[in-house]
Write a structure and sequence with these properties.
Blueprint lengths: L1 H7 L3 H8 L3 E4 L2 E4 L7 E2 L8 E2 H14 L8 H10 L6 H11 L4 H4 L5
Antiparallel strand pairs: 1-2, 3-4
Helix pairs in contact: 4-5
């Protein structure tokens, strides 16, 4: 949105309001126009931003591969993402886990019987 605002010479809030409550039809379905402007998370190497959806997918992938008897904490997931060049706060991991419907490490732990 910021790029569009800069190109057109208006405030980013104006672009946001113009896109609000608008929908786009595509072969994949009908989506809110705002979805085309996915936010991103800065990469640690100063390169391009990583889309929020990509970060959520990466978190899902990490959790799917974890040892269920000793699940990863949010801090451990932060460290793994940082090793991949993605800087994200622990609270962002918690927020994305909630969005994905993934419980905390305590809730994911599988106890031996």
């Amino acid at each position: 949105m910021q790029q569009i605002a800069d190109t057109v010479g208006i405030h980013v809030g104006t672009v946001s309001r113009a896109c609000d409550e608008k929908w786009v039809s595509s072969p994949q379905g009908i989506f809110p126009l705002q979805r085309l402007f996915a936010g991103g998370i800065a990469s640690s190497d100063g390169g391009e931003n990583v889309a929020n959806d990509a970060v959520r997918s990466k978190i899902q992938e990490i959790i799917n591969k974890e040892n269920k008897k000793s699940p990863l904490t949010d801090d451990a997931i932060v460290a793994m993402l940082e090793s991949d060049g993605i800087q994200v706060a622990r609270r962002t991991i918690a927020k994305y886990r909630d969005i994905l419907g993934i419980p905390s490490s305590r809730g994911r732990r599988q106890w031996e019987t």
